[in-house]
Amino acid sequence: MTLSAFKEYIATGYPQDKNSITFGCAIYEQKPVTNSWINIPLKSLNRHGLICGATGTGKTKTIQMFAELLSENDIPSLLMDIKGDLSGMAFAGTCNEAIKKRQDVIGLPFEPRPFPVELLKLSDDQGVQLRATVSEFGPTLLAKILELNETQESIISVVFKYCDDHQLPLLDIKDLKKILSYLSDEENKDFEENYGYLSPTSINSIVRKVIALEQEGADQFFGEPSFDVADLLTRANEKDGKISILELSQIQDKSRLFSSFMLCLLAEIYHTFPEVGDLEKPKLVIFIDEAHMLFKNSSKALIGQLEQIIRLIRSKGVGIFFCTQNPTDISDAVLSQLGMKIQHALRAFTAKDRKELRLVAHNYPDSPYYDNETLLTSLGIGEIAISVLSNKGYPTPLAAVLLRAPRSRMGPLTIDEKKQLVSQSLLTTKYNTRLDRKSAYEILNENLAKAAARSQQSTDQTTSETAPEKNRQEPSTFDKLSKNTMVRQMGRTIVREITRGLLGILGIKRKRR
């Protein structure tokens, strides 16, 4: 095989046109081939993808470079920033000898520039606060984040049904704890007649898990205003797509919160974005770092929902890229739907590693120019093996690639730089003030207070013991509540409870439950 034949092999497999982006140049016999560029068709990006590689091989820089190219083509993206060093994309990078040499070898100029960045957060970091209501999460995702067993998950499903039937909005952790406390009362016969018996022991076990989750910071995440996924598509300027960066460095050890949020976000996008068919370029591209968290300890039902979303969300114009160390971290059903595969170097130190290496090598097309297993262990930092789906839908030939360098800053922003960036965001004023409108917590407290007052009034009145049976009315709901021992206790303590305000009266919108 000659060099000229290799160049033709690459040019045929990765042709350049106006609707493509250039990742770098191909590598032949372990040497980069200048101007033999690897071009990725934009149309292929909503067929999803995988970015894999061992720690320290450059996956984060690949995501950064990828998002820059998307932004230049007016495609917004959402990035998960686990390590906290992607925020620097808001500022221009700097050139050094290594970068200049790399770009000269590739045959592309290096022009440092900033990109439009929106910082998002789930914790106390700088950025736009992301929230979702308990109702939006739904019983299945809530069961995952609480790590409930099947019995406890069925109880949560019944609780959601009860709240739907009785117009009790579940917005935050207080609402959830209040309804669980209310339903744990053994004398709540009305509930048992219509929804079945719920074991107080099981409910109390769920309450303890809710409290534990609250201690991890979930009370900051659950509530209103909930994040509108349409804000991921807003334009930053006239020509560049916005890069939304979700800072996760403070909660990287809280995988339940992160993974459950991502599943909720994907479900929200799937249910709210309109059908657009097979576009020439995607409306949004999402990069999910540490993707193994989505599948770890997830129920079969939840993984089934995720597989369905991945299969169908492409018709919404959304591309999803899973980033992890090993492809085996991703379920086979999801892996089979990923059209682009980007592989950084793998390390094979043990027999198990070598077995996994062989499995990964089989995910790529055979090539007359590469031995797949040898290639995957010999890649350097900033080098990848790649195969994508062409515009016609067939896999491109396997290619080793020397990647171009990111043009924005490769490192985090300072605290002052973050503050400056966040202060310029229009979304900060929209989302960073918590709303606290009337919900299950207030409604149940009001009902219990009324029932307690009725109970007190009843004890002060003289009732006739000889009243005809036919004149006795059927006890009302409040009468039944007044006989409840918990209600009487609530009546004595209700005045000491801290109740929430009604600040959320503005901007109320219909929520999915």
TrEMBL record:
InterPro entries per the UniProt record, alphabetical: HerA_C (IPR033186), P-loop_NTPase (IPR027417), T4SS_component (IPR051162)
Residue ranges occupied by any Helicase HerA-like C-terminal domain in the UniProt entry: 35-511
Annotated region described as Disordered, given as residue ranges: 452-485
Pfam families from the UniProt entry: HerA_C
Biased composition (Low complexity): 452-466
SUPFAM superfamilies, per database record: P-loop containing nucleoside triphosphate hydrolases
Signal sequence extent: none
Gene3D superfamilies (UniProt xref): P-loop containing nucleotide triphosphate hydrolases
Alphabetical list of PANTHER family matching this protein: SLR6007 PROTEIN (PTHR30121:SF6), UNCHARACTERIZED PROTEIN YJGR-RELATED (PTHR30121)
Protein name: Putative ATPase
